[in-house]
Design brief:
Order of helices and strands: EHHEHEEEHEEEHEHEEHEHEHEH
Number of strands: 14
CATH class of the largest domain: Alpha Beta
CATH superfamily of the largest domain: HAD superfamily/HAD-like
Structural class: alpha/beta
Number of helices: 10
């Protein structure tokens, strides 16, 4: 069946190592949208403010999947389509647990599109913090009074590994964690995933599952690829992503996402594998 919606991860997928969209990729995405009527959806761990420049560059009008799926947002209208935050009590318990184990771990939180922290260290930077400063730097107890879209714990890799294990022990079925970088542990509500968010977006756009193609490179993309009708892994993808892919495209520094769209969507050619492998 013809692909009607393409969901694309950003870092390591759509963006090059220089965090840019190449002219070639931009041209193919515009052709897919304008000439073929394909809905292009950006699906990222980033907040809306960090996705917006890419969204505007590509002249999109679709919802975005933010915070690994904790938020589905429509930038043109400012409408929140879905939001699944962590309750303040649970978020506070996780912060107390992390700081009790390692007092120097950095704690940040995002509530919709606002960033709160009590201490900022440029040595532990996220892609978003390289572009935007915090909205508030103040003691945790002064801002951790509301539900939080995402918690971010930053510090040494060995700290985060032990904190992650403790979170899974003490907050079973309450939160989900994602670690795609050695110094960053992301914490979201237990029901959050890019797969669930993509399901919501597809329903919003009136597109069936078998008309959806998803492209990604890292562990937080696996569920999204498994849910989509066609799953595409980047050439630079993690092993668990390659394991669930119907099609493996080129590296993100070689317009891999654009090549997959051109081949599978614009040209209508079949993916590499006739049947999706078992994960």
């Amino acid at each position: 069946m013809k692909i009607q919606l393409v969901a694309i991860d950003l870092d390591g997928t759509l963006l090059t190592s220089a965090k840019e969209v190449t002219d070639t990729t931009a041209a193919i995405l515009r052709a897919a949208r304008q000439d073929w009527g394909v809905h292009v959806v950006l699906a990222s761990a980033r907040p809306p403010r960090s996705v917006e420049p890419i969204y505007r560059l590509l002249d999109l009008d679709t919802p975005t999947i933010n915070y690994n799926g904790a938020l589905v947002y429509h930038p043109p209208s400012g409408r929140v389509i879905m939001h699944r935050p962590i309750p303040a009590k649970i978020a506070g318990g996780i912060v107390a647990l992390a700081r009790g184990m390692f007092p120097d771990v950095l704690v940040s939180a995002e509530a919709l599109d606002h960033w709160f922290t009590d201490r900022f260290d440029p040595h532990y930077a996220t892609e978003t913090s390289l572009l935007f400063g915090p909205d508030l730097v103040a003691p945790v107890e002064s801002w951790l009074t509301q539900s939080m879209t995402k918690l971010l714990l930053l510090g040494r890799g060995e700290w985060l590994g032990r904190i992650d294990a403790a979170i899974h022990r003490d907050f079973t079925h309450q939160v989900v964690t994602v670690q795609t970088e050695p110094t960053l542990l992301q914490v979201m509500h237990a029901t959050v995933s890019k797969a669930q968010a993509l399901r919501v977006v597809a329903a919003e756009m009136g597109v069936s599952r078998d008309q959806v193609m998803a492209i990604g490179d890292n562990a937080n993309d696996v569920g999204m690829l498994q849910w989509a009708g066609v799953a595409v892994a980047m050439g630079n993808a993690a092993p668990q992503v390659l394991a669930v892919a119907d099609h493996v495209t080129d590296h993100h520094d070689a317009d891999g996402a654009a090549k997959a769209i051109r081949k599978l969507v614009l040209m209508g050619l079949p993916p590499d594998r006739k049947h999706r492998p078992e994960p």
